[in-house]
Amino acid sequence: MQKTEKIRIFSENNEFQHADVLKRNRVKRSKHNKFFVEGVNAINLAIEYGWKIDSFLYSEESKLSNWAKEILNRSLAKKHIEMPASLLSKLSDKEESSELLALVEMKEDNINRIEIKKDLFVVVIDRASSPGNLGTIIRSCNAFGVDAILMTGHSVDLYDPKTIRASVGTLFATNVLRLGSHNDITQWLNTTKETLGEIRIIGTTVKTENTIDTFKFNSPLLLLIGNETYGLNQNYKSMCDSLVKIPIHGAASSLNVACATSIFLYEISKQIYRNSFIVPF
After folding, report:
1. Within the chain, how many helices (H) and strands (E) appear?
2. Closest by alpha carbon to 195, among 91, 116, 264?
3. Hey, is 83 helix, strand or coil?
4. pTM for the structure as a whole
5. Percent of the chain having pLDDT more than 90?
6. Apex 185 CA angle, 211 and 111, nearest 5
7. How many Å apart are CA 159 and CA 34, to the nearest integer?
């Protein structure tokens, strides 16, 4: 077991700048394979679900809570970086600075992380363009029993602090993988069908006669969610067994993608879990 290196800094040195750039810069996060995490729930879930912590950052100018002390005492992080409260405040995104920040290592985007089982429920999000929406979808997927989320296309960063914040830390408790395109999904489907047989593929769109309130969902199931502005691209539509919409009334022509996804997840979870499981909400 490695020994934690304890470092004290007093200025915006390399350690500070490294944390700051991981918070702000997607390219640097990808290069270093690490990302910035803030918040009690997020840090607790990262530890609970076995994510590797590279560093904890904190200040002892103010008395640390019992929670923070316990985290540091049990820590397996490579580094503990102590700094003045003024520096910690500069890194924090909160009005009142968090007492503990973390730099966490990314997990490998290995599609073999998905457990193949007869009631498999996977969500594909194509070209997500809002970190807030992506984080909210992750939160809903975690709440409604989704086994994995597959992100494709040019999307917002999964590890953007805004995404993590919108997920309320559930990113760490949810199996989320970043893939290249629909071709990667097709390859995975072909392999998975050898084990499960058929997988029902459902796409979401406003341009269909099938409505969520009358449609019958069955597992194993792949639910395809399109871009916030452009919806599902043609490659994904051609993969679908059925396209389904949410009937809405009033002046709005469509729903926010995170709201719409949550409605789909509720209905699917209710139907699939109803006979054998307690619905997870």
Report:
1. 10, 11
2. 116
3. coil
4. 0.93
5. 88
6. 120
7. 9
Tokens of 74: 């049990």
Measured CA to CA, the distance from residue 82 to residue 96 in angstroms comes to 18
Name the average pLDDT for the chain: 93
152 contacts 182 by C-beta, under 8 angstroms: yes
* pLDDT (0 to 100) of residue 253: 73
Give buried/exposed letters for 197-208 (b at 16+ CB in 10 A, else e).
Answer: eebebbbbbeee
Residue whose structure tokens are 């019958």: 216
64-88 as b/e, with b when 16 or more CB fall inside 10 Å? beeebeebbeebebbbbbbbeeebb
Full set of structural domains in the chain with CATH? 5-105 (3.30.1330.30), 111-273 (3.40.1280.10)
> Would you say residue 48 has pLDDT above 90?
yes
Contact 162, 134 (CB under 8 A): no
Strands 53-58 and 100-105, sheet pairing: antiparallel
